[in-house]
Structure formats: C-alpha cells, structure tokens
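Notes from the 1:1 (GR / supervisor)

We went over the backlog. Supervisor wanted to see one worked example end to end before approving the batch request, so GR pasted a single chain during the call. The sequence is below; no edits were made to it. Supervisor asked that the structure be written out right there so they could see what the output format looks like.
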Amino acid sequence: MYKLEKASSICQIRLERRLPSYWRVTFDHPPLNIFGPETIPQLNEIITGLETDEDVKVVVFDSVVEGFFLTHYDFLARLEDSTNLPPGPTGLQALPDMLARLSRAPVVSIVSIRGRATGVGSELALASDMRFASREKAILSQWEVGAGLVPGGGPLARLPRLIGRGRALEVLLGADDIRGDLAELYGYVNRSLPDAELDGFVDALAMRIASFDKQAIAETKRLVNAASLPSDAEIAPEWDAFIAAVARPAARNRIKALMERGFHRPGDVENRLGYYVGQIGGYAT
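Structure output shown during the call:
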C-alpha cells in the first residue's frame, strides 16, 4: 500500500493495488473524513487512473476512519477555493465531473460503507456501480435541505432513478439519517450485511469480477449506463444550485447554528447530523 504524493496538501486518500486488476481506495482524513477542495485533485488522480489503466477492472472505495465513510463538503474552506476550480473533462464543475466520470469509467466501482456516508459520501456511493453497507454501522444521508442547501453532486438526478421519486424525495427533503437496513429496503444500497461479513463479501465479489475479461465488463457496463445514467445536462444545475444556496442568508444562518452546536468537530452533531438539522429551524430563521 502506498499514499498518493501531494506536495501542497495532506494526503487524504490511500490507494492499494491488491492486484493489477483490483484496486482499493481508502479514505483516511481523520477525524471525520470531510471532503474539501484539497481532496478534489487527489480523487481526480484516482479516477483518471481508472479511466486510463489497461489492467484495472474493479475498484472498491472504503474508509479507515472509525464511524465515517466519507462525509459532507468542507464549510470552513473558502468558497472561492471551490468555485475557482476549472471544469473537468465533461465540462461539469470539478466534483460532479469526477462522479460522472466514475460512473462511466470502464471499471466496476463498489463502495463498502461502514460509518456515515453523508453528503459527498452519499453522492460518491450513488455514482458508483454497487453499494454495500454494514447493517449495524452504515448511515447514508443527503442532509443538505435541512441546512438550507441544495445537494450539488448529482443525487437529484441519480437517486430517483435508483429508488423511485417518492422515496428519493423522502431522503432528500426529510434530510434524515438512513441506516443500513432501511437503505437496503429502499434500494439505496444493493445489500446491507452484518458488519462482520461486510469486508469478506465485498472482497470476494471484487476478486470474482477482477477475474473476468475486461472488455466484457466494460461493454456490459457501457450498455447498462446507456439505459440508466442521467445525462451531464441533468447533473450540471445541481452544483450551481448548491453554490448559490451556500451564499443565501437562510443557509448561512443554519450552518452557523450547526457550527455553534459542534458541526465540523468530533461529537454528537456529526454523529447524529440528521437529528440536528431537524432541530435548528426555530433558531436559524
């Protein structure tokens, strides 16, 4: 295992090539695995590798940070650090660009969710091909509406296709935590498994797929994509709506109220974000 070398920022992602055909990508940004502008070039390097490497057939995303798979965007970062990033190869802004490219890469992408997949973590899961969750420890959430925001990484286009309109609106507008067993029932994840079985199941599936012919994998995925993926034009407005929402007083007041209670710090707010976004309305108008 080795870490991607980044001179300008702390490495937040580890890449392990278990086989030439099987990669593991591990989020390692304690204590909360918050995703910020400095994470974008690190994830982009991974996705570019998945697009161009001739041998890789399957990639698994996981985390070594206890309680957190990958969480929300970094609201302590300067907004211009995000808005000044150039568009990616799809023409989308950096984060939705990477997620769209991951969905189309000629490689099978699997997320193994143990802990909170909140905001960006949920969006990465939705952009991946398969999602598996710890029944006891996984929590998925699109919490943004509860803080006066609009989700920006593609879930408005992807989630209704995956779980249906009514359930998608429940997840998005309810802005609450969805635990592994309910996520499985809704189709938000492929399966939830007992925590002790999650790693073995995902590794066995990845190894099985890695043993198959890459062209057959890529062609099958390409044709499934044609029948199921949203277009870039459907995803593009989400990031613009997210950035516009961040600047609105309603969102600023709600984020401030969350910060005062412990948002962005280890503790109960980050552990139960769905609960807390439901508590701040009367204090953040």
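Supervisor's comment: The longest strand covers residues 13-19.
Batch request approved.
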